[in-house]
Amino acid sequence: MALPAPPPARVFAELLPAQAPVPTPAGRGDPPTPCGREVHVSGSAQLSAGPDRARVSLRLGSRKAAAGAARSSVARRLEYIAQSARQRGVPEENMTVTEDFSRVENTYQMEAEVCIIFSDFGKMQNVCNLLIEKLGTSVTISPPHFYHTPEAIDTLRRQVCVAAVGNTRRKAQEVCRLFGQTLGKPLLIREEETKEWGGHIDSHLLTSPDSLTLQERIQNATAYASCRVFAVFEIKGKENRRTKLL
């Protein structure tokens, strides 16, 4: 997937001697009217985050002439699945079991589905490999569905904004250094644009084709975010020569 090119940076520096502020009308979202020596900078950042959760569904069933035999056949396998997951550190609350019991002609049919949420993808592979080895064709394991929790997306949004502000400040420092000036305190920091693409949060409607590999599924679920900020910094004065040498 091709990534969009970062927006061009905008830099404006005011290096004239400080003057008394001249009141001028301004809109609510306008930057402050220059009251002294300032540097105006626009910068951006782009980050990505892989999925932090995977959901695996396991289906099993049994059809017997006796109702009790159908139930016990499925119950034994359900207990083995739950025990195997618990032994490998999967919390009980991350496992959900649904059962369906019905009569088909002269037999009884018991079907069950187990959904397990994993935060450790290595444990997920270990559990799935073990169940395939021990239960064989008596259980059907769906490909894992990778997704982001809302907390993971919020973290990505904060990180990309902070990274954009940091890039903008470093750019302003380089501009001041070019003219032998010292960067002062920020006078304005404004988030101008944010974008998010790729990846997804938890949704039962989002599934991946069976032909994809595990790494391709993780890549398809990776989320990207970009942020552009505008900042105004004070220019304190000429750069200290001793500090420059250090």
Automatic annotation (TrEMBL):
Q: What is its main location?
A: cytoplasm
- Localization annotation: Cytoplasm; Nucleus
Q: May I have one GO cellular component term?
A: nucleus
| BP term (GO), one | positive regulation of canonical NF-kappaB signal transduction
Residues annotated as transmembrane: none
Instruction: Extract the InterPro entries matched here.
Output: IRAK1BP1, SIMPL/DUF541
What domain of life is recorded for the organism?
Answer: Eukaryota
Keyword list (alphabetical) reads: Cytoplasm, Nucleus
The entry assigns this protein to a family as follows:
Belongs to the IRAK1BP1 family.
What PANTHER family does the entry give? INTERLEUKIN-1 RECEPTOR-ASSOCIATED KINASE 1-BINDING PROTEIN 1
Full protein name: IKBP1 protein
User: What organism does the UniProt record list as the source?
Assistant: Pluvianellus socialis
